[in-house]
Amino acid sequence: MLLGIIGAMHEEVIELKEVMELIETSEIGGYQFFKGTLLNKEIVLVECGIGKVNAAICSTLLIQEFSVDKVLFTGVAGGLNPDINIGDIVISTDLIEHDFDCTAFGYEQGVIPRMENSKFKADLELIDLAKKVATENFGENRVFVGRILSGDMFVASNEKINWLRETFIGECTEMEGASVAHVCQILNKPFVVIRSISDKANHDANMNFDEFVKLAAQNSKIIIEGMLNAL
Ligand code: ADE
Q1: 2-230 to CATH, choices 3.40.50.1580, 3.40.50.12780, 1.10.260.40, 3.40.30.10
Q2: Were both Cys, which of 77, 184, 212, 227 would link to 198 (CB 3.0–4.6 Å)?
Q3: Are the C-beta atoms of residues 161 and 202 closer than 8 Å to each other?
Q4: 205 CB within 6 A, ligand 1
């Protein structure tokens, strides 16, 4: 079984890159794919860059060029649910591209016209495993399993938080997960998105992000390693 692991930013993949045994590095279109083993499991790790298109390109390449069997996305997010604090974990049930807007044609926000489904569901076994590992490491109160919202924007206002919560009932917001999920749905690959909270998507979000991104990335790494052990 070959596992694809994606993180958007250097901070989000460096922790895993440092501990994996690298066999081969390949470059496609400027993206670097690190093939090797981690805890004796075969993986391909990639830093996809920020935003939905970068994440979609790398997910597609992982599946089509590297033939990964499953996809894990690891990284940080802004909390939307007021019960979620910095350092807590969110595991995706389903994901929505919150900035997809064809409301002018009567579609609901986030609905992609002419697609059967725009709420991309993560794999149940991967969700269960991520939840188990996260709970063992961080405790039940710090682990949330629910909807993740993705858009090409860094959310840093209470107004936007309220709109996202009211419109989609999302637990957290980030900039890649739903596009990875979209690709995995189209190409029929199981996936899950695991996010650790770096900020609360409010007016302090940019400052909190800089302060907590490393801690949050370390939390995500702990979960990926726990999952690899069990897979
Ligand atoms: N990733 C981490 N925090 C975020 C936020 N507030 N908005 C979008 N993506 C994020």
Answers
A1: 3.40.50.1580
A2: 212
A3: yes
A4: yes
